[in-house]
Amino acid sequence: MTLHSGRGFACINYPIGMNLGGDPAQALVHSTPDGKFMVTLSAIDLGQGMKSVTRQIAAEALGVPIDDVYVDTADSDTGPHDMGSFASRGTHRVGNAVIRAASEARAHMMEAAAEELEVSPADLDTDGAGNIHVKGAPTRRITVAETAIAAQFKQGRTLSGRGIFLIEPSGVDPDTGEMSPVTCFAHAALIIDLTVDDETGEVEVTKINSAYEVGRALNSRLVEQQLIGGAWMGVSHALYETTEPYYPDRREGPLDFNAYLMPGPGEIVPHDIAILERPAPDAPFGGKGPGEMCANPVLPAIANAVYNAVGVRIDALPITPEKILRGILAQGGARPQGQRG
Amino acid sequence: MSSVEFRKELFADERQDDLKQIGRPAIRQDIRGHVTGRTAYYDDHLFERLLHMRCARSPHHHARIRSVDTSEAARMPGVQRIVLAKDVPNNLNTLLSLINFGKDDEPLIAGTKVSYRGEAVAAVIAETELQARQAAAAIRVDWEVLPHVLDVEEALKPDAPQVNAVYPDNTFDYEPYDHVKLRFGDVHKGFAAADEIVEATYQMSPIEQAPMETCGAIAVPETADRILCHTGTQALFFSLGTTAKLLDMPSSRLHFVGGTVGGGFGGKVDSITEPMAVLGAVLTGRPVKFQWDREEEMQVGAPRGAERWVIRDGVMRDGRIVARSFTGYFDSGAYTRLSSYAGTKGVGHLPGPYSIPNVAANVFCIFTNRTPATAMRGFGITGVDFAIECHMDRVAERVGIDPISLRILNAYRDGDMKAHRRTAKNTALVECCQVVADKAGWRLSAEDRAASSLTGTTAERQAIPETALDEEGRIGERRAGRVTGTAPTERSTGRLPAGTRGRDHAAIPVQRPDMEILSERVGHRMPDPAEAGGAPPLAAAAPARPTPPAASPPPARPASASPPPASPPHAAPAPPPAPPRQPEPAQPAHRSEPTAPTAPARGGHDPAPPAQPKPYEPDKPFSRGVNRPGVSRFLTGRRR
Amino acid sequence: MPKIPVRFTLNEAEVGLFVEPQSNLLEALRRGAGDLSPKYGCGQGTCGACTVLIDGEPHLSCLTLAEAAEGRRIETTAGLAQGSSLHALQTAFIEGFAAQCGYCTPGMLMAAKALLDRNPRPSREEVIDAISGNLCRCTGYEPIVDAILAATEGRAA
Questions:
Q1: Residues of C in contact with B36 (CB under 8 A)
Q2: I need a labelling partner for B42 at 20 to 30 A (CA). Which of A188, A332, B160, C5 fits?
Q3: Which residues does the UniProt record annotate as the domain Aldehyde oxidase/xanthine dehydrogenase second molybdopterin binding (chain A) (predicted)?
Q4: Domains of chain A by start residue, with CATH
């Protein structure tokens, strides 16, 4: 038995939001009597952090601390319409709707504060810590809580906002395929190091290096969660997962997790990530959704690394030991392609 | 073991890193609920006298239902109700009918024929899950087994079994063709001029989304004759609208609650458990839970569809790819679900993040007697990225060029024209390649290290070439045996002049000025108002005017424009003026603006302007989008 | 068939239930005792989302007959915190971003608690071994392993 080392590369871009647009998202923002803010959505948090990232976006757009914002989703009686959590649209579409709703609420808040401070709203700014002050004169200030109390109980003013975000829907020209698919793209490049056992055909991924361009990491740890977990899923797709091992034959389909295989905690791959941020002009604070694209480059990079290790090209996923061994057998032995880089 | 670094020096002049809340590693809003077990997923709601629903399913890939005998099941202990196709008020739907795309082609419960193994033919509602399961197993169906087809290319043959009566040719209708076409330049001329041709076929496997929480919903009769539905859906109003339509109920009678979901990955968009549970609650007047078990999740729940991609590249010895054609087959399974959308999305993604002057694609959405496919993380893209990036390595090997160097050479840059006739902007592929090579110690040439997404475009790369057109593969021709080939044909029937393109589509501006965030608070350089045609910041560039290619380096903001909050107040100069506000509720006045010519290349390296484009509006686009923004079918349960 | 009476302690409180014959402990805890922290993930004993501690040992409650809980001491994630004071594992999961959708988290925490209760200073390999019956589809496991190790360090301090 010999372990052959291989290294493979892949790079990708990824469209953000539903293809061809036409997928609206709405948001509502209102303040409590003492100046905390509720964001009401119909977006879905399926683990990607929808509630958390929209909370952070709302806080930034309002100019208040994150802890003073709470996101409530998704109740069709109170939440305004949203298409749903798919197509990497949450951050971009819902985030923009939240910015718009929060901006309108902020405008009302600044008007209320201006009335209390007897200045023009344009002369005011927030400090992000719960205060509104006169630009250039931080001691002339009022707290957001005092502003909200004055607005509601004295001025008869609501600190609330509505937002909708929609990319105008595009059609497709049937003769050329001309279309406006999306307005921004995330990017990634990734290098896989692995070993292939030429006796068993087993692959062990030993290292992932990656560079992900995400527009802006709106929450650095949420992005990290996606990139680490997404790359894990990419490894899983490349090497293990299928509902039909003999596709298009439907025999031998797995019915449980004993037969549907995924890597476990014993197969954690060290993953060194670089995050690049080129803000997209129409994205919330420039941020593109990283959740889907993170898995994509892993699949081809593994296939390319397997070829580099033993000279066998596996063009049909998943890259199982059986396929690798058949390939090695067909060419009369492993044919390492030489060190890369 | 793993590590994360931020490469803040890259694109630094396009960013302001003075945001107060954005970027911080704030803890998740939902995390305390997760670690204390208090987070309430759809199933974490207790109801008195909850009933359970289980389905009887087809053991055959394709069969006609002669009769269903429920007499034994109905007598079994605990059984409250048996649900058949006739109990579904409007038993034909397609998910994307909610955005006017595609024809209704799938029953909630099959009544006359099943088209995949596992398709539901009846449901049992009983007091316990076990009783429902036992009664479902006692339902007897008299089947007439029909011939089936499982392979996408077999399904295209004229004599293939007909999977779905609504699409008799086994292909989704992309009017007027049976596939999506992409035509940019002339690939066959490109192949003829190339030094090398590299061709290969790639196959994606069907993959289960495998969220830890299976699909499910609990429906509960509520006050005011409404139904409350706790759901694990990924798309609340998709599920609500689908339920309203299938059950012919006004949407105002439905109260959907969700938003806290135990993983989705695309598998919780299909909106099957919600109408089933609501129907059960309507029929029994009691709370009903319909939850897939893990076996159903794996073999009945729609997987990521298997895709097959054939890629053919024409490449020059120096590594420039001069022509690339695709033949793509999306295996939709027995019904459309979302595969039609994936076909179009996949075509919008071609030819990957590269500038290639001649590109063509034929992409099919094909019906087979398999479990319907649906969305999964990277939907419409993961499979073709696998194919493209494996193919790039094949090409690199053929011409003897370093794989990363080949990518950088062909990478799309700001200002390049993409194959779907839109200008690339905000690109960063080159930088990702450089950074990861550096991290992994993969040596690049000085030229590759000096490359940039901001430079490198040329008049040639910005231009839309004259394009060879054809009309092969009209709906029905293949079934009639008049067309056999699936790859983009060499027999062109017309030429589209160079430079021909329509208008871009962008965000619709804010409806009131107050909803617009101030430009100095967004954390990045907004498009120059002149460049953006006066559109408000978040509307990005005005749709009718492509961003000038290789926009000159962003005017660096004066460093003083972003004072840290703590700086002495009097030292802080005034922020730069905000761009002009959009005056009034902006009706998209840009709709009729003519197309602007492509701007000349930067730096004057290549003064020859590309061919003058003319305004172009495709005369018969097939519609995928909402025809009338603001008038949504989500608002009604009625079919139109 | 008549229902069967079962008595056990759940997070130190006494519980008495009548359960269906053949029904499992997961349903008894969730719908009988109202403790919704153990989750249904597969019903086949292959995912670990329903993990609870029985007399201190991790068990898959979906494969455990409810009547087998008679007289036993059962612990779930709902009882992990002492009042409003979180367990070290919970704090470590929060600070380590060790959950995304959160559905596997209660089972993970129970598997981890069983380990730490018998081995307060486990090695990385022992942590991996302890959670190898618990599946997670979101995180890639690394943040979970790191959080459990961080919790042991917190205890030592």
A1: 37, 77-78, 80-81, 86, 90
A2: C5
A3: 5-244
A4: 3-15+184-330 (3.30.365.10), 25-165 (3.30.365.10)
